[in-house]
Amino acid sequence: MDTNRKSTKRLSTAKDLAKVVAEYYIECHQAKASGKPVGWMPPMNGGIEIFYALGLQPVFPENWSPVCAAFGLTPANFEVSERMGYSRDLCGYLRNIVGYVHGDMNGPSVPLGGLPEPDMVMSFGGGCIPAMKIFQVMEKRFPKAKVFRADAPQVAVEDIRDHHVAYAVSEMHRLIDFLEKTTGRKLDYDRLKEVVELSDKACLLWDEIMSYRRFKPTPISAAEIGIMFVMVTRQGTQIAVDFLTRVRDEVRQRAEAGIGVIEDEKVRLFWDNIPLWYNMGLFNYFEKMGGVMVAETYSAAWSLRLDPNNPIEALARKGLMSYSLVSCLSIERRKEMVMKACRDFAIDGAVFHQNKSCVPITLGQADIRKALAHELGIPSITIDADHMDSRNFSFAQFQTRADAFMEMLLEKKHEHGTPS
Amino acid sequence: MDHHPAVLPFMDTVRMKRHRLGQAASGGKKIIGYFCTYTPVEILHAAGFLPVRIWGGVGRAEKAYSLVPNFICPYMRLSLEGALSGEFSFLTGIVQGYTCDVACGLVNIWKDNFKMDLCHSLPLPYNDNRDARIFLRAGLHELIGKLMQIGKGFTDESLEESLTLYEEIRSILAWIFDRRADRGLPLSSGEVLNVVQAYFVTPPEEYLDMLKGLKGNLAGAPVPTDSGIPVLISGSLIEDAQALTLIEQLGFQVVADDLCTGQRGFFPIAGQGEGPMERLMDRIMKRFPCPSRSHPDERVPRLLDLIRASRAKGVIFLFQKFCTPHLADHPKVSQALKDAGIPSILIEMDEAGLMEAQVTTRLETFSGMLER
Questions:
Q1: Alpha carbon distance B287, B275 (integer Å)
Q2: B148/A contact by beta carbon, under 8 A
Q3: Which candidate in A127, A298, B4, B167 could, as Cys together with A131 as Cys, close a disulfide (CB 3.0–4.6 Å)?
């Protein structure tokens, strides 16, 4: 096994994902060609629903990076950004997208036609620093694009108070004003309610799909996490709801029929942090020894409810929570989430990806590991890697640690008399 | 190396900080720590606390790696190392104005690992408009509410007094920075750093008296005529005076800076507005921007102004290793400087400070380039 490998997927619906991905990028290019305004924006906030409600085309440069990793474009992109002076110590998403937009963006070797150039750039402060810096670079790279500089309170989920919500709501209104003035379109609030309702349905379906991970054997593993593409790019659309419904139905059917990811599931694992997008096959690595990566950090990233009757506040709250749920803004809440996932899904061991490209998720992992060990008796390992840059990952080192870990977990199971 | 006698009290204060703060805490003083200068120290002080900037220092992290990875800045690694070794046992709590991701994460790690009465991260707006100021005001009031639960009390009058005190401190520091830019300061850059570092660990009333004494001593003091190549230093924070000493030994003269342990941390002197809270908020909004909270486009004009005013011939970027905000801005900022005809060089510092041998060669080359 080398450092670049795709995951093995068992769900037939998850295998449809390639079509969903391709259709999304075709839609982006068609939008550009037909004069529909295209806006580049960060993921996981309420802007996507506003865009879809206004009939605009959202594009997510951060989400393009995993696509680049999957298609092997990252080395060339890194070369461009590093030549421009961007340090290798910076987040791989940042270095990749900066390299991409300054390189051959839509050249013949770029899959899916690449990204259409933006008519608008939703620059922002309020998520992680690299994401903020990505959009500052985009502003300069696309000087003709109209720029909206958004703001979001950086606050832990458990500390959200009325003034945080009020400010986030005022920012949503400012965004709507900007989009209406820039595009000449008028937001139909009834349409927005429909979009928010679809978004809420997608969140419900997401939670339902994740909940089937409690079954033994698990019908779905982290290797299928690519399905979250629709949560990032299609939230607020029927496309996301339809796709997730198909995934839910298949996962439910497999759960009820007792069909697992592998035939003989012996050890159930949890993955913390972003996957190695250039090596999703890592999620399958443990299967040869009976280990299944049952769940991962993103399991709970969309555990949100959105009230369609109060759509602006619902979207403001979504924006406040999404980043906090998967970052060091709230180590306490992340710890609770990981512990809950490990309890609910009967996890035997956890793999913590110490991710050089994502400090906000990596910080706090040691505290979470301690809690898992002391409160639930769940052992864990740390692997040093990078979700974008394969130069920061040694498969040989991973293999040594992972094999020893699996042997220990199997031994532990055997000692406790559980089936092996 | 002989130091100017006027800075010796500041150096003593820095050297004895742990002992003195321990004594103050034993005597009943409640001390609140912070990492970044975006923490509103005036509010902490007005609520009866002594604000102290947590230090990292120079050394080697070992215990810290049980809690954090090695790819965060040495300042944060070493401050955690200190905390795990009991260095900050005098702290009642931490209050951090949200700046970078690492500072945010570290507040939560401290919260999880050390018993303190308060660990609070204050979200700050990135934009400046009416709603942003309403939000900031509410956040500051939330902080005041938390401080009042563990402190003495807070009033508009106490805030007014604290603002006046800190404004006076900043105005004398500005006088020092101006003298430095005019080549009228008989202090080395390492000595200036000691003066600033004392600010972070001294009760402000005491520090103001020290500064007044320093100003009196420096006002008519002779200034050495042998100056080096004038440069501006840009980065996050520098704690190691040796790094600046090395730079000056190589023939440079630091005439301005863009550091939070320097001019950036103290500009502007005061905010405008009706009442102390408005003035405080106005100053936060109009801070000389740190890259963690701003766009390179906002920073470049200010840097160019500083360069022009100080007649610096070049810029030495002196970064904490792994500092994302500064590293991410660097290509754009250095290019903008180049376009303006200002050469620059980037040096990174890790736990042990500067790697002398490597850095010396590069700085010598840079100095040769500036002299041409």
A1: 19
A2: no
A3: A127
Range of the domain at A387: 1-420
**Chain A: residue whose CA lies nearest to B113:** A367
How many whole angstroms separate alpha carbon A150 and alpha carbon A50? Answer: 14
What SS3 class is residue A412? helix
- Cβ contact, residue pair B101, A360, below 8 Å: yes
B70 shares contact with chain A (CB less than 8 Å): no
Q: Measured between alpha carbons, how far apart are the two ends of chain A, in Å? A: 26
pTM (predicted TM-score) = 0.95
Residue type at position A272: D
pLDDT tens digits for range A186-242 = 999 999 999 999 999 999 999 999 999 999 999 999 999 999 999 999 999 999 999
For residue range B17-26, what is the model confidence (pLDDT) as tens digits? Answer: 999 999 999 9
Beta-strand relationship, A146-151 and A38-40: unpaired
Place of tokens 């400012």: A174
Q: Any idea which fold B5-157 has?
A: Rossmann fold (3.40.50)
**Host H or E run for residue A131:** helix A129-141
Q: Which two tokens stand for residue A99?
A: 């390299």
Window 229-258 of B, Cβ < 8 Å to A: none
ipTM for the predicted complex: 0.95
Buried/exposed B85-116: b ≥16 CB within 10 Å, e otherwise: eebbebbbbbbbbbbbbbbbbbbbbbbbbbeb
Instruction: Tell me the angle at which helices A311-325 and A189-211 cross, rounded to the nearest 10 degrees.
Output: 40
d(CA A197, CA A332): 30
Q: CA–CA separation, A72 vs A123, rounded Å?
A: 27
The verdict on a CB contact (< 8 Å) between B121 and A87 is no
The number of folded domains in chain A is 1
The residue in chain B having the minimum alpha-carbon distance to the alpha carbon of residue A83 is: B331
Rounded to the nearest angstrom, the minimum Cα separation between A248 and chain B is 35
